[in-house]
Write a structure and sequence with these properties.
- The structure holds two protein chains of two kinds.
- By secondary structure, chain A is α/β, with parallel strands linked by helices.
- In chain A, the strands form six sheets. Chain A has a seven-stranded mixed β-sheet, with helices on both faces. In chain A, strands 15-14-16-17-19-18 form a six-stranded parallel β-sheet, sandwiched between helices. In chain A, strands 9-11-10-13 form a four-stranded mixed β-sheet, sandwiched between helices.
- Chain B is of the alpha/beta class.
- Chain B has eight helices and six strands.
- Chain B has a six-stranded mixed β-sheet, with helices on both faces.
- The chains are: A alpha/beta, B alpha/beta.
- At the A-B interface, β8, α10, α13 and β21 of A face α1, β2, α2, α3 and α4 of B.
Chain lengths: 592, 191
């Protein structure tokens, strides 16, 4: 049976068909939907959200070592978090087959950087596969599991946004039930102590030699002979874009297994074509290795290494052709920057923070990253997951040391706090900086689409579980001043911030209110009730001061003609933040 | 069979472009075409611009439509039509839903919603304008606006031969099937 699947859905199906029994991930665009689509196979597969990518990979490693087929998925920056276990596990090798998905984001649609994780395969010396459509995404999970078991190594399956999120046809297959291999105690294999690791280091190089033969033989790397004037070496989605431009007018060496590269195949291909192009997205990963072999080719001198690739870019770069376009005046086109939703519980905190003078707000990865944007302009920095808390610590220490009275306030979400913020808070307690850490607990993982986390009381597969109590955790880490506030009550937020900023020791404020878009669980309904309603502006009372507009709520609209504010009934949920900022009491909650 | 055809649906997060494209792609797949569909949504749930692209034909390579390549552009929102106009072929068709969603810089009064967008586009390409929100509201549910637009797309692309009612039955929840079929038909008639 054929189905139209995204690359992520196809990988999930591949995990099922490959007989994998343990899968873990931390959500992150564009990889999130992989685990979500594995979760329904409850009978066959344990699917878990881990608090971070390092934990996800490490738990998959544990499953592999005891003999189960295992799987971990993450976005490109997640692999940085998981790099530590990855590099050591590359030494030990596996027992049950194991696959790691890196979902890279050329074009930075919703990430903090653009990194080409093919470099990780070369760096960690592990085999890599790159699918170019959904069918391959599914099949390559199964290939990867076989390669993993055959060569005793974890395998990297490298995807990109366009493969993850585009749909193409996939032929479904049956699940292969393989059970679990036996586990035999073998510290020489699984314990990377120096004496053993030195021996493993040698085995890694031996494995690379074997993989070099494999890459030449595998049908995952194949020729497509057409006219030989132009020859193209390509992989992943770049191959599809290349075919779009050149069709049958060029020959191809399509690479699905890209570390190690099949250098003999590449040489043979190069010898038969007149002009050789290497077409790849982002970095010249293949091109550099090909050029290092002394093979002449054209690549990044004609195709940019910045941003997502498409057929247009290839056409322009290699053929110097441009399609005729419709020309129209677009000078008054207005952007659509993302914004905190109407009723977002983060708004109240950012509104109060934006009024504070002489503070640096170190931000983090999540919806609250939007606190950087106009009109709130509340956040100063965004580095990576968990960095807000430790960057705030470093900033505060340096400020205090140099006699600067500026204060550091860190903002971090609940899921991100569990991810790597906890460690940073421990550092604050241990090294004692008088920072203010604000944990924005919206009872879910908001930005990626409402995944459960250790604070929500539910698992990925829908089981009720232990709900971590953040205030207790913060106290246990060593923070004495912990306060929980309702972020929709501005006075409460302001008082808590003022108190915290007056302290000469670390403090934590937890803003606890559910994400407005989240489906409320039984636990949420018990705690927060049904609070939604509607606010309205009395236009006779409105003086058009725009104070409410400055909260950045997308339900509020400043009407230039009447010079008053209007509230969109469809979007407003009656959070009442605007009610509290209106100096003339022109806004009222009208419905429950 | 046919050359590859490119359909571009653009709108704002929450307007249902993705569901419309899903029904469209399923129908094309069942009609025997090779189909690729791509969603570009980034942080769309937070008010951003959303596009979905559907390519179909005998064999489809790239999942994305470049500038100047779309055979038809269905814009669920007025300003988005202007934003994506350069992706339409010079002889392509434009369908615009006469429905405006101001973005944050407009809501805050810093920028103005562009004026005369539809007229500007009409001067350049074959343009059909319909008020899908009104049509959907008349049918009893404004949220089927996306399916009304899908209906007009089906008509404009000459894809009436596919059994869309069956596809809708398979794709949407049972209680919405009837409403969606009505919306699809209305869209086909109003074009």
């Amino acid at each position: 049976m054929k189905k139209l699947l995204t690359g992520n859905e196809a990988v999930a199906r591949g995990v099922y068909e490959a007989g994998i029994t343990f899968a873990a991930a931390y959500p992150g665009t564009p990889s999130t939907e992989i685990l979500e689509n594995i979760a329904p196979y409850k009978e066959e597969i344990i699917a878990e959200w881990a608090p971070n990518e390092k934990v996800a990979l490490e738990s998959a490693i544990g499953a592999s070592i005891v003999g189960a087929r295992a799987f971990a998925a993450m976005k490109q920056v997640g692999v940085n978090v998981a790099a530590d276990p990855l590099f050591s596990f590359a030494y030990t090798g596996c027992n049950g087959g194991i696959v790691l998905v890196s979902a890279d984001e050329p074009g930075i649609h919703s990430s903090q950087n653009e990194q080409d994780n093919r470099m990780y395969a070369k760096f960690a010396k592990i085999p890599m596969l790159e699918p170019s459509n959904s069918q391959e995404a599914k099949d390559m999970v199964k290939d990867a599991i076989k390669i993993s078991e055959m060569y005793d190594t974890i395998v990297l399956l490298r995807m990109t946004t366009r493969i993850c999120h585009s749909k193409s046809l996939v032929e479904l297959g049956e699940r292969e039930e393989v059970g679990k291999k036996p586990y035999n105690k073998n510290p020489q294999k699984y314990a990377t102590t120096p004496a053993y690791a030195r021996k493993m280091r040698v085995r890694v190089e031996e494995r690379i030699k074997k993989l070099k033969s494999f890459t030449e033989e595998t049908p995952l790397n194949y020729f497509e002979w057409n006219k030989k004037k132009i020859g193209i070496i390509s992989s992943g989605v770049a191959y599809q874009h290349a075919k779009e431009v050149f069709g049958k007018s060029a020959s191809y060496l399509k690479l699905g297994f890209t570390f190690p590269l099949p250098m003999e195949k590449i040489k043979a291909f190069a010898a038969k074509v007149q002009t050789l192009y290497v077409i790849e997205e982002v970095e010249p990963y293949m091109e550099e290795q090909i050029k290092a072999m002394g093979i002449k080719c054209i690549g990044k001198e004609k195709i940019p290494n910045i941003g997502e690739l498409n057929a247009d870019i290839i056409r322009k770069g290699l053929l110097e052709e441009e399609k005729p376009l419709i020309e129209c005046d677009t000078s008054d086109l207005v952007g659509r920057p993302p914004t905190l939703c109407a009723g977002c519980p983060h708004r109240g905190l950012f509104y109060e923070l934006s009024k504070k003078k002489n503070i640096i707000v170190t931000g983090d990865i999540g919806c609250y990253g939007l606190g950087v944007a106009d009109p709130l302009n509340a956040v100063d920095t965004v580095i990576c997951m968990g960095a807000s808390v430790s960057a705030g610590h470093g900033a505060q220490k340096a400020l205090s040391k140099h006699g600067d009275h500026m204060r550091a306030v860190s903002v971090i979400g609940d899921s991100t706090f569990f991810h790597t913020g906890m460690n940073s808070l421990l550092d604050i307690a241990y090294n004692q900086s008088n920072t203010v850490t604000v944990i924005l607990d919206n009872r879910t993982t908001g930005m990626t689409g409402h995944q459960e986390n250790p604070g929500t009381g539910y698992t990925l597969q829908g089981e009720k579980t232990k709900e971590i109590d953040i205030p207790t955790l913060c106290r246990a880490i060593g923070i004495d001043h912990v306060k929980v506030v309702n972020p929709l009550k501005l006075e409460e937020v302001k008082t808590a911030l003022n108190e915290a900023l007056n302290l000469d020791e670390p403090s934590v404020i937890i803003t606890r209110w559910p994400c407005v878009l989240k489906k409320h669980s039984d636990l949420d309904i018990d705690e927060f009730g049904d609070y939604k309603g509607l606010c309205e502006v009395d236009k006779d009372q409105c003086i058009g001061c725009k104070k409410c507009i400055n909260t950045g709520c997308p339900a509020l609209h400043f009407d230039k003609e009447s010079k008053t504010v209007k509230i969109d009934k469809v979007q407003c949920v009656g959070c009442e933040v605007c009610v509290q900022v209106c100096p003339v009491h022109a806004i009222k909650k009208v419905g429950e | 069979m046919t050359e590859v055809k490119n359909i571009l649906l653009v709108g704002v997060g929450g307007q249902g472009t993705i569901l419309a494209s899903k029904i469209l792609s399923t129908g094309l797949m069942e009609a025997g075409y090779d189909v690729k569909m791509s969603e570009i949504h980034g942080m769309s749930q937070r008010g951003g611009s959303v596009t979905t692209q559907v390519r179909f034909g005998e064999e489809v390579y790239s999942p994305i439509i470049g500038k100047g390549e779309a055979d038809i552009l269905v814009s669920f929102e007025v300003m988005e039509a202007l934003r994506w106009l350069d992706h339409l072929k010079p002889n392509g068709k434009m369908v615009i839903n006469d429905y405006k969603i101001p973005s944050v810089p407009i809501l805050t009064g810093k920028k103005n919603y562009p004026k005369g967008v539809i007229d500007r586009i009409k001067e350049k390409v074959d343009t059909t304008v319909l008020n899908a929100a009104k049509i959907a509201e008349e049918l009893g549910n404004v949220r089927t606006m996306n399916i009304v637009l899908l209906g007009s797309l089906v008509k404009a692309m000459g894809l009436e031969g596919i059994d869309w009612e069956e596809i809708i039955q398979k794709t949407v929840k049972e209680k919405f099937v009837h409403m969606n079929i009505k919306a699809l038909k209305a869209g086909m008639e109003r074009l």
